[in-house]
Amino acid sequence: MFVSSNLSINEKGNLAIGGVDTVDLAKQYGTPLYVFDEDLIRTHCRQFKNSMDKYYGGEGLVCYASKAFCCKEMLRIVNDENCGADVVSIGELYTAMSVNFPAEKICYHGNNKTPEELELALDYGVGRIVVDNEIELELLNKIAGEKGKKVNVLLRITPGIDAHTHDFIKTGKIDSKFGMTIEFGTAMNGVKKALSLENIVLEGIHCHIGSQIFQIDPFEHAGEVMLTFISDVKKECGYELKTMNLGGGFGIMYTEEDSPVAYDLYMKKVSDVVKAKAQELGVNLPYIIIEPGRSVVAPAGITLYTVGGIKDIPTARKYVSVDGGMTDNIRYALYQSKYDFIIANKANQPKDDNVTIAGRCCESGDLLGENVPLQKAEVSDILAVCATGAYNYSMSNNYNRVRKPAVVMVKDGNSRVVVRRETVEDIIRCDI
Ligand code: LLP
To answer: Which residues have C-beta atoms less than 6 Å from ligand 1?
Structure first.
């Protein structure tokens, strides 16, 4: 009935997350409000970790992609679950540093890292820097030299895999701003360059083939392509790359149309392929890293809004406006992403209306969904949007100088604020 296993209807007929009444949460903390279920986040971390231990056989690391949802408490939880973190900006790195996230378990990504970012990454001793291109290799070598350090590097490879997903979130195909292609020899040249630079220690390779992927075969294919490249490097350079990072991208259920694959099945299938291929090619089983983001955190989160204006336009449609919108969830405006909507205080009633959910920004495209089934909405109802834990808070913005919502975490029937709501003072804090 619900897209996430942590949602239920309580005795009052209200929607509950992790057993906590969402209508009470809206009253206590105000709306819009992001709510996360801590146990489900932990469960997902464990599922990935346990399946890696169970099926891979070799060593590995689950590195949570913090771009999906990054705040201090999230990184504390991830560390507590013995996962690493993938960061992609000085802000994400600084968040990790602020909770003493173990530097050796951090992967630093990005297709255009600044010298300032690389310097901070080196100062903190980040375990792996995923280098995107040769220019960055040289820059990193120079900065490491100035600091008298050697730096551990993975090279970002574009394996040429076209996973079936939304065009904007495909990153492993050849036409990509990320990484070095195998096809044109760019990746091999990158390896040779890295091996020639005295402050670079080339540990391995990385790829990320896209996001919200439901098929297993693109991941299996990526594993094969990456291992073949490891073998080619061994033949051509006499150097064996130790680590293979296969990125993230595992799909989740936003609506009933989505059919995600069980996380441990990914790990099993990919492990089988990688082990067989390593044997076939005569290379050692690499240290494996995966970087799930969405799959760890999206199903664990919901967003709560208060319904305001309702406008039924004859011959057009019915708009239900809420007190948030593209500032806290830009995914419909960007990707036409679909969500499951529920009126939290009418969760046990049938969804016999069909509406467009509008945000509050001065922008006609500020919608959260169109043509969505919903219970009959009335002013002051609490609207819940499910599976908003990933790429919602992290992509939130202050358009129209709207304040970002608070983030609340529920656990064992209790709730706590982990990111406070922005104030109007926050809105002008950088203004001179
Ligand atoms: N590793 C790398 C290098 C990545 O670029 C990404 C996501 C991940 C891991 C995590 O992928 P995930 O497991 O979350 O699919 N804003 C878009 C998603 C962009 C994903 C970018 N990279 C959205 O809202 O759907």
So the answer is: 65, 67-68, 86, 109, 169, 171, 208, 211-212, 247-250, 291-295, 331, 390-391
